[in-house]
Amino acid sequence: MIIERQSQKNIEVEIPTPTTFIYRITNTETSQCYVGRTCDVGRRIDEHLQAQGSIALLHSLVDYGIDKFKFEVLDSCCSHDEQLLGLLEDYYILQSDGLLPAGFNQRLNRSIEPNGELVDLSQPMQLHAKHVFSRAGMLYFSVGEWTSARSYQVLANIASRLHEGAVTKKEVGGHKYYQVRVRWTPEAPDYNRGERYDLRLTYSFPDDYLCVSSTSN
């Protein structure tokens, strides 16, 4: 690239070729989207269409058909720094509201820690969680950092404010998750072990426990 100047010599500037692209695939019917990064956009989109990638995105492609999806490149980068590229991808995932269940992304690249966001415990909270087991009038769910990032962030922000055992941080084989203990109520449905649910939880201040106020699959 040549930068022309009126009074002095022209300056030659080398413009590097982008090596990584941030792309987004959006279901135009539901507005749900998936954000990813790749060095070859065409190849990566073909892989998604061949069932290599997000299972949630694949199910939506099957249900709605490819004609209902928009494919676009959001950004490009010349760096090979994995940490920088991860931060850039995370930025667009969050900006696009791409995390499950609102979108098709399962997780962020970064480890999720308390971020100072205030959670009002006087209001019901929404969690995407997997039922693990029931015991002695209590329901136990798991919320994974890699599988339910949005819900995991909420729990990271409130864990220190709840009584011991209500929300417990655990790690197995490098996989971080929160175990959530919820008091069973007669209104609570029967939960199938291993299945994921969208829970609406309320917190009882006088009794210091969580309970389910509504549920959906």
Question: How does the SSE layout of this entry go?
Answer:
Blueprint: E1 2-3, E2 11-12, E3 20-27, E4 33-38, H1 41-49, H2 55-64, E5 69-77, H3 82-95, E6 125-135, E7 138-144, H4 149-158, E8 167-172, E9 175-183, E10 196-204, E11 209-216
Antiparallel strand pairs: 1-2, 3-4, 3-5, 6-7, 6-10, 7-9, 8-9, 10-11
Question: What is the compact description of this entry?
Answer:
By secondary structure, this protein is of the alpha+beta class. The protein has helices at residues 41-49, 55-64, 82-95, 149-158; strands at residues 2-3, 11-12, 20-27, 33-38, 69-77, 125-135, 138-144, 167-172, 175-183, 196-204, 209-216. Helices cover 20% and strands 35% of the residues.
Short key terms for the protein model shown above:
217 residues, alpha+beta, GIY-YIG endonuclease, 2 domains, six-stranded antiparallel β-sheet, three-stranded antiparallel β-sheet, 11 strands, 35% strand
